[in-house]
# Entry
Amino acid sequence: MTKTKTSAGASGESAPPLGDMSVDDFRRHGHEIVDWIGDYLARVEKYPVLAQVRPGELKAQLPPSAPAQGEKMEAILADVNRLVVPALTHWNHPAFFAYFSISASAPGIFGEMLAAAFNVNGMLWRTSPASTEMEEVTLSWLRELMGLSPEFDGIIYDTASVSTMHAIAAAREALDLRIREDGMSGRNELPLLRVYCSEQAHSSIEKAVIALGLGQRSLRKIPTDAEFRMEADALAEAIAEDRSAGVLPFCVVATVGTTSTTSIDPVPVIADICEQHKLWLHVDAAYAGSAAIVPEMRHILDGCARADSLVTNPHKWLFTPIDLSILYTRRMDVLRRAFSLVPEYLRTGEDETARNGMDYGIQLGRRFRSLKLWMVMRYFGHEGLAARIREHCRLARLFANWVEESPDWELLAPVPFSAVCFRACPPIEGETESARALRLDALNEQIMNAVNATGEAFLSHTRLNDMLTLRLAIGNIRTNETHVRRAWQLLNDAIQGS
# Structure
């Protein structure tokens, strides 16, 4: 029997010879785990935000093979504390500022627990009426809060990468080129198909064209203006140029809240262009779409009513544990046409009267994801969710003001939401422009690494106008002004120590 590197001497019972853990043991361990989760969330600030381990460190502490005999739950949970927790980057930490935050709020955690306990596969209405209909109702609630038209119907996937891939697949299906039936390979009569996005768009769009067999050559990236928004005139010129070259444009991806800067593309003008050329308009609002539930911010989706599809991720800024992405579309029939494939063994008597989730994507298995969002929306309510998003935006503007008021720092992009792009730029004379650029890049990387090494905060970077740029993204449900002020102090300590 393989010896495992686990905690020894724990009390309790291991797994029975057959069947599952007893209900009594489940209750006992369940209470222990809920208590542990409560303690973890209460003391998460005591952990370093960024994992303080080296690659391979956890793997070296785990046995190379699974145990031949079952182990006691106490020993397993002890190893969660001893091995897993030290190797975590703590996304639930209120000073996690590196990426768009993924907050596991309490009702969302409960929703995940219940979904795991129910363990349903919502592929068909028959296999889970509850998950099918709750998904429809919950997405209708959110659509209304975001101010989207009832023309939009929604479907849940795991991430925006997958949602966007499905949207582009539907856009391709709308061309009626029989690609579903005949494919693209060996068809000399097919022109090069073109998708457009801005140079600031998320990398998932490029991955989508790769996965769909369109190839990277099919994606054309449009320049952005001084505020990192797609240049609509450049888009129109690119479409005209492609058409004259025999290329077939079919989809434009506009972004509301880009990953690097959270900029907003001019969707109304882009929608005009798409209507003129009969192109599918997909809007990536994965991060910022949630902000539209704040009444005074609803304008961020201006023009989106004319989009064919829009993606938003409640797991990014609506305090719902990962993963949960929503694709809204006004052309659900085309999405279904692209993916529906029903073998005899999956036919049911409700197929004509109820929605079957499997018809709208590549996955047959579908988790009960809507349950956690339903619980989050009910627990916090519209006003509570909006208040938290509004506060995050206030904190971002506060931080941006500190940056603008300091001679040692500069703001590098507008702050429409809760992410701030900035860099250190202490005044030093006597340098050439190129030497100063290299020095500032190195300085900012050094500052970021120094702040992250403290364990008190975690920031990330991007490149804007070929400058290494620091990013502070606020979105954790537990973040307050104290955490933002501490991050600012750490940054200034780092610049003084550099």
Q: What stands out?
A: The radius of gyration is 25 Å. Residues 121-367 form a domain with the Aspartate Aminotransferase; domain 2 fold (CATH 3.40.640.10).
